[in-house]
Amino acid sequence: VETRPPVYPPRCLRMGIEGTVRVRVLVGENGRVQEVTVGKSSGDAALDEAAMEAVRYWRFEPAKRDGVPVRAWAVDDFTGRHLGARHGLHRGDADDVRQRPQAGRPAVRG
Fold first, then answer.
1. In a 10 Å sphere around its CB, with 0-12 CB exposed, 13-18 middle and 19+ buried, how is residue 99 labelled?
2. Which of 2, 8, 78, 102 is most solvent-facing, going by the fewest CB within 10 Å?
3. Model's pTM, two decimal places?
4. What residues have CB less than 8 Å from 2, skipping those under 6 apart?
């Protein structure tokens, strides 16, 4: 699994805009991202795009069905925060990422 953190949009940083975006990621059999969509918007297009842009370059351990890698949807949350001298768009805990091999249907978290 390879990840890179999203870049906090400068405009959002200047304006103190924060939010959480839920990103849905279609992970291929090879662990590469095939599709990225917003499952739930942060309310700011720049924060949403920053999370999606970072995830496009991630690599995952693919989901498996009967020991064979399959395409599956993963879901992850990113939260933008103003953290004193440090600013960042942070992803949720690793436990928040779920891959479920459901053909044609995204994983839905409750």
1. buried
2. 2
3. 0.72
4. 57, 58, 59
